[in-house]
From TrEMBL:
Keywords: Transport. This is Membrane fusion protein, Cu(I)/Ag(I) efflux system/membrane fusion protein, cobalt-zinc-cadmium efflux system. Residues 360-421 form the CzcB-like C-terminal circularly permuted SH3-like domain. Transmembrane segments: none annotated. Residues 144-272 form the CusB-like barrel-sandwich hybrid domain. The keyword Membrane does not apply. Residues 37-46, 446-468 have a biased composition (Basic and acidic residues).
Length: 474
């Protein structure tokens, strides 16, 4: 009984063992076959993925090998750089096709936030801003000075700054010489009346000549015509003669003092007509081409905010201040209410006339090297071409635009940011191209030298014939 139980148990164990082994074998085969299929597909994909890149690289010729940390370090063969790093190949499609051309991955261009602008064909103008100072109109300054010596009898305008009208009495002057001339004029007038009916033409002419000479003397002394006419009508000699104002304006200087002796030619009054005023301002030399006489100008005063005065450019001075590098410009403004007072400072804006149909680019797009002016033209697909341009005048708001006389055409795209990085890369590529060209020229010269050098010629010397022919029998 015990023996049968033991044998039965062993048989059951053996059956389960064989069944498990068989099941495990089948499952393993299925898993192996299942796992091998993706591996084969993955392996095939891995072989196909670099196939296009490899084919592309095989199609491109390697021009040279470059150090990854120093682009100017180039080699003809692969290896290590001076820093111990693997050299990077540079293919033909990656190298620049023209001198100075820069090629950058479009993704890198986007990450660099490279901005471009379109070259435009339009009218260019500007507004010149400057600080000016209100001044007197020099064409409307008047000096009042007696042409004869005498004593000031009476002052009618007795302080500086007083407003006077044209023809208004200023002061009275007593001059013995003037009194004598008045008496001579009355005598010549009476004499002329007596000899007017004379039958002798010579006598009549002499009387007229004496009368005219005396009258001219009074006029040359500045005696008003009204005073001379009054002298003729009344026949009374005046002790003092009154001098009047020649214009309407403000008394700037008063040198006449009542009771004081004043010599001929001494300035007694200086009067300024303030109906118009000048504004003197200075502009920089690069702004002078925009300014012409007759252009409109505006002026604002800090003491009168919100109010704008309108005038024009009266004159552009022909000289340049060597210290400040500025040119003085004179503006003219009407001043009917006398609000503009000489000595005031003002903010001035001069509006220029536009230049028609000129090629214009942003001023920030230009790289000024001192020897030439360069812009980078975007050619598409990450290619940028450096191009030398000829500059014209600056204009636009705050001089942010500039005229281009030669170098670019309207419609082209130019770089307006990060152009110094492009310039550095362009100079580097240009230097590499020159190094490669120099190396190629050297190699060609060596090959040409080898091809043109003649081979060594065999110049064997034949032994001299020393046979004695004299003993030979003929």
């Amino acid at each position: 009984m015990n023996t049968k139980s033991i044998l039965l148990s062993l048989g059951v164990i053996a059956t389960f063992t064989l069944g498990g082994y068989w099941l495990g074998t089948q499952t393993g085969n299925m898993s192996i076959s299942t796992s091998e299929a993706p591996k084969d597909i993955q392996h095939q994909d891995m072989q196909d993925a670099p196939n296009s890149d490899t084919k592309k690289q095989e199609d491109n010729e390697i021009l040279y090998w470059q150090a990854p940390m120093n682009p100017s370090e180039i080699y003809d063969e692969p290896g290590k750089s001076k820093m111990g790093m693997d050299l990077v190949p540079v293919y033909a499609d990656e190298a620049n096709s023209s001198e100075g051309m820069v090629k950058i991955n479009p993704v890198v261009v986007q990450n660099m936030n490279v901005r471009t602008a379109t070259v435009q064909q339009k009218d260019l103008s500007t507004a010149v801003n400057a600080v000016g100072k209100v001044d007197y109109d020099e064409q409307k300054l008047f000096n009042v000075n007696p042409k004869i010596s005498g004593w000031v009898e009476q002052l009618h305008v007795d302080y500086t700054g007083k407003m006077v009208q044209r023809g208004q009495p200023l002061f009275s002057i007593y001059s013995p010489e003037l009194v004598t001339t008045q008496q001579e004029y009355l005598l010549a007038l009476k004499t002329n009346d007596k000899i007017r009916s004379s039958s002798f033409e010579q006598i009549r002419a002499g009387g007229n000549s004496l009368l005219e000479a005396t009258r001219k003397r009074l006029e040359y002394w500045g005696i008003p015509v009204s005073v001379i006419q009054q002298l003729e009508q009344t026949g009374e000699v005046k002790k003092a003669v009154t001098l009047t104002s020649p214009a309407t304006g403000v008394v700037l200087h008063k040198n006449a003092v009542e009771g004081e002796f004043i010599k001929a030619g001494t300035p007694a009054y200086k009067i300024a007509d303030l109906s118009t005023v000048w504004v003197q301002t200075s502009v920089y030399d690069y702004e002078v081409p925009w300014i012409r006489e007759g252009q409109p100008a505006q002026m604002e005063l800090s003491y009168q905010p919100g109010k704008t005065y309108r005038g024009s450019v009266a004159y552009v001075y022909p000289s340049l201040d060597q210290k400040t590098r500025t040119v003085q410009v004179r503006l003219e403004f009407p001043n009917p209410n006398l609000e503009l007072k000489p000595g005031m400072f003002a903010n001035v804006r001069i509006h220029s006339r536009p230049k028609r149909d000129v090629t214009v680019i942003p001023n920030e797009a230009i790289i000024r090297t001192g020897e030439r002016n360069i812009v980078f033209v975007a050619k598409g697909e990450g290619a940028f071409e450096p191009r030398e341009v000829t500059l014209g005048v600056e204009g636009g708001q705050r001089n942010n635009e500039i005229e281009i006389l030669e170098g670019v055409q309207p419609g082209e795209e130019i770089v307006t940011s990060a152009q110094f990085l492009f310039d550095s890369e362009s100079r580097l590529q240009e230097a590499i191209q020159k190094m490669l060209q120099q190396k190629q020229d050297t190699s060609d010269m060596e090959m040409e030298k080898k091809d043109t050098t003649p081979g060594e010629m065999n110049h064997r010397t034949e032994p001299a014939d020393t046979t004695d022919h004299s003993s030979m029998n003929i």
